């Protein structure tokens, strides 16, 4: 584009030199000025476009410091049918500097800027489900009470989730005679002599593999 403007200007100036009529001279002068202005703007734009763009290194500098949390000195808890209360011993807690998040099976409470330190009370998997929208914090002068509202009226054995080791096994290979044998044992212990003789015989028959119903002798 700049080369085209230069050629046009050269030809207009040549015509201006040989022109004789005042009106033609005036028109050529005006056109030369306009073309010189356009040519100057085009050159300026080309120079700007040639300035290299800053190269991104792909490194993002974060101005926010990473917060560190100190362990809690002590806390305790208790429960009733509806709630679990966690008592955190902390003095000088500013309610505006607390962050809390409650979910169905977890909670996370952060205490910031307490005598220059940050503290955190969190459990990633609770013993049982809670109702997040009903949970709350109560700020006291020397402690904070975290109230977790139970989703069901079940007794909590611990704050943390634990497998119930007392849950009975429901194995597919369980002996189908076990229940009958337990029943016969109880009847034997509580029965009279005649009953004990009858049950003893039926028990013996069952153990030796006889097909007779072990309870048929005392029905």
Automatic annotation (TrEMBL):
Q: Name one GO molecular function term.
A: S100 protein binding
GO cellular component terms, semicolon-separated: cytoplasm; nucleus
SUPFAM superfamilies assigned to the protein according to its UniProt record, in alphabetical order:
Calcyclin-binding protein-like, HSP20-like chaperones
The coiled-coil regions, if any, are none
Q: Which residues form the SGS domain?
A: 145-219
Look up the record and give one Gene Ontology term from the biological process aspect.
response to stress
Using the UniProt record, give the first listed, main subcellular location: cytoplasm
Its biological function? May be involved in calcium-dependent ubiquitination and subsequent proteasomal degradation of target proteins. Probably serves as a molecular bridge in ubiquitin E3 complexes. Participates in the ubiquitin-mediated degradation of beta-catenin (CTNNB1).
Q: What name does this protein carry?
A: Calcyclin-binding protein
Species name: Cicer arietinum
Q: What is the lineage of its organism?
A: Eukaryota, Viridiplantae, Streptophyta, Embryophyta, Tracheophyta
């Amino acid at each position: 584009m700049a080369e085209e403007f230069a050629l046009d200007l050269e030809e207009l100036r040549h015509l201006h030199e040989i022109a004789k009529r005042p009106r033609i001279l005036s028109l050529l002068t005006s056109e030369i000025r306009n073309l010189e202005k356009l040519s100057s703007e085009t050159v300026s734009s080309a120079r700007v476009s040639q300035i290299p763009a800053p190269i991104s290194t792909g490194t993002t500098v974060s101005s926010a410091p990473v917060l560190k949390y100190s362990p809690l000195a002590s806390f305790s808890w208790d429960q009733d049918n509806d709630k679990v209360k966690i008592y955190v011993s902390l003095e000088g807690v500013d309610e505006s500097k607390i962050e809390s998040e409650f979910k169905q099976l977890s909670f996370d409470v952060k205490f910031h800027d307490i005598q220059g330190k940050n503290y955190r009370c969190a459990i990633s998997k609770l013993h049982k489900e809670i109702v997040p929208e009903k949970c709350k914090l109560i700020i006291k002068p020397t402690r904070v009470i975290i109230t977790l509202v139970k989703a069901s009226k079940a007794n909590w054995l611990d704050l943390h989730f634990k497998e119930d080791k007392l849950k009975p096994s429901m194995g597919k290979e369980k002996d189908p005679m076990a229940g009958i044998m337990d029943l016969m044992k109880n009847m034997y212990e509580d029965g009279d002599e005649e009953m004990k003789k009858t049950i003893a015989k039926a028990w013996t028959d069952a153990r030796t593999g006889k097909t007779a119903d072990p309870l048929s002798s005392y029905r």
